[in-house]
Amino acid sequence: MIRKGFSMLGASLLYLISLLPFFILYRIADVLFIVLYYIAGYRRKVVQENLRNAFPEKTTSERAYIEKEYYKHLADLIVESIKLFTISQKDLEKHFTITNFDKVVVPAFAAGKSVIGAVGHYGNWEMAALKLSLLTTERRIIVYKPLSNPEFDSMFQKMRSKFGATLIAMKNTMRKLVEYRKERTITVLVSDQTPAKREIQHFTTFLNQPTAVFLGVEKLAKLTDSAVVFCDIRRIKRGYYNCNFVPLFNDVKNTAEYEITNAHVQYLEQVIKNEPQYWLWSHRRWKYKPEDMHK
């Protein structure tokens, strides 16, 4: 009961903070960066190890620069994500723009196809998912991983669905997409999460190391005969992002095994290499190696 009370208090505090204008939130982010980077050293060993393994060709000073810039972005990402609880449609459309939706997704709909979109933990993927709700009247589906705290989970569900998106918990994705197979839908999945050890079916090379990857994008696309796109999110400037819809596969039935998975992983890798500071380096992405599967 006490824990629930603290959770509700925390959720209420986040809601109140989200009411603040962006310029004040970014002053908070400036302080938060100092706390995360200099005082708490939040997961700095994880970030440094990830950067060393991903970019062995870079100098120590080059990786240190990426590390510091990443923490600045992380602080911004935290306050921006809080802002999404109360952001208006007008502000969302101002801060997040879209490219190629009409040229890539709309023609797929016109051909009677649904669309599966792969997105990485890059830029502000939460803002991208929210903006998706404003792009079409067809069913917009956001696949999410429920939070362990029910109060915060409920709060995030309300935020993600407030402009009309349909939320599907990750474990229910396949069943629900089959249920919606007679509709034209666009489904967005975060494709660079780490599978649980028992769920690992495929390793690919990603950022210079063997990486366990989910096969969800590929399996769902083939199950529903959907077109596959990559949601290429880029930071324009502080607080402003763009998502370019990049076509990957239109005829998924003629693809080889793992071809779709390797394609969206490689595209994300190139995005990260271009501007590495905007990926989620504090995530423990490489928990498992191929040799671990025999233990």
Largest sheet: 7 strands, mixed
Helix % is 40-55%
Shape: globular
- Percent in strands: 15-25%
The succession of helices and strands, N to C, reads HHHHHEHEHEHEHEEEHEEH
Structural class: alpha/beta
Count of structural domains: 1
Tell me how many strands there are: 9
Give the strand line-up of the largest sheet. Answer: 1-9-8-2-5-3-4
Question: What's the number of helices?
Answer: 11
Low-confidence stretches: none
Query: Compute the gyration radius: what is it?
Result: 19 Å
Instruction: Say what oligomer this is.
Output: single chain
Provide the residue-averaged pLDDT. 94
Q: What is the CA-CA span between the terminal residues?
A: 41 Å
GO molecular function: acyltransferase activity
Pfam family, one: Lip_A_acyltrans
InterPro entries: LipA_acyltrans
Protein name: Lysophospholipid acyltransferase family protein
Q: Summarize this, please?
A:
InterPro entries: LipA_acyltrans. The protein contains 11 helices and 9 strands.
Structure overview:
The structure is a single chain. With 295 residues, this protein is an alpha/beta fold. It has one domain (88-294). Helix content is 47%, strand content 18%. It contains 11 helices and 9 strands. The strands form 2 sheets. It has a 7-stranded mixed beta sheet with strand order 1-9-8-2-5-3-4, sandwiched between helices. A two-stranded antiparallel ribbon has the order 6-7. Strand 3 (139-144), helix 8 and strand 4 form a beta-alpha-beta unit. The radius of gyration is 19 Å and the shape is globular. The model has no long low-confidence stretch (mean pLDDT 94).
